């Protein structure tokens, strides 16, 4: 006895001739997306539109509205601070926002396209010469201030 021929992965996505009814021609089906194309199509649907997100740069002071659900209620809590880092792009784009709360530095990482991030508003543009502002972690008080930039619109 010989072994049956191996089935290619492409053949699994196509309907077989035996199961398809040839009685009435059906409407043309949507193309079946495979692998990376399927993931890319899903990610494009999840992206927030360009109108929802402003241009954010490192050094900007932003107010991020974070959705918080307590019990059966949902509210938006603002979190305001300086953007000290931007990472990734597309659906996975994140910003790290640092603020001082009761004398202690607090940093949060926000995924910009997440449903938990309700809104992002730029409050002030900062003038910096670095891509990452991690040096602000070692500074205290007035030394943590970032100069304001006036050549970009808010």
Summarize the structure in short.
GO terms for molecular function: mRNA binding; structural constituent of ribosome. Helices cover 11% and strands 32% of the residues.
Describe the structure.
The protein is elongated, with a radius of gyration of 25 Å. The protein has about 150 residues and is mostly beta strands. Strand 1 and strand 2 (about 75-85) form a beta hairpin. The N and C termini lie far apart (about 75 Å). It has a domain at about 60-145: SH3 type barrels (Roll), CATH 2.30.30. The chain is built from two helices and five strands. The model has no long low-confidence stretch (mean pLDDT about 85).
Helix/strand layout:
Elements: H1 9-13, H2 35-46, E1 61-70, E2 73-87, E3 94-101, E4 104-111, E5 117-124
Antiparallel strand pairs: 1-2, 1-5, 2-3, 3-4
| Named CATH architecture of the domain at 61-143 | Roll
CATH-derived topology of the domain at 61-143: SH3 type barrels
User: What is the overall silhouette?
Assistant: elongated
How many helices does DSSP assign? 2
Q: Give the total of beta strands.
A: 5
Enumerate the strands of the largest sheet in spatial order, edge to edge or round the barrel: 4-3-2-1-5
Mean pLDDT: 87
Portion of residues in beta strands equals 25-35%
Class by alpha and beta content? mainly beta
Q: Identify the quaternary structure here.
A: single chain
Largest sheet: 5 strands, antiparallel
N-C termini distance: 75 Å
Cα-atom radius of gyration: 25 Å
């Amino acid at each position: 006895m010989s072994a049956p021929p191996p089935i290619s992965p492409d053949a699994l996505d196509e309907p077989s001739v035996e199961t398809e009814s040839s009685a009435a021609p059906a409407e043309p089906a949507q193309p079946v997306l495979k692998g990376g194309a399927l993931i890319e199509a899903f990610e494009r649907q999840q992206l927030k539109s360009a109108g929802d997100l402003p241009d954010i740069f490192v050094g900007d002071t932003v107010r991020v509205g974070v959705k918080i659900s307590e019990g059966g209620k949902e509210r938006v809590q603002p979190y305001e601070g300086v953007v000290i880092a931007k990472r990734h792009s597309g659906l996975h784009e994140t910003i790290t926002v640092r603020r001082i709360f009761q004398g202690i530095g607090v940093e949060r990482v926000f995924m910009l396209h997440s449903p938990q991030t309700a809104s992002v508003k730029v409050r002030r543009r900062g003038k910096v010469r670095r891509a990452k502002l991690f040096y602000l972690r070692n500074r205290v008080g007035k030394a943590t201030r970032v100069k304001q930039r006036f050549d970009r619109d808010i």
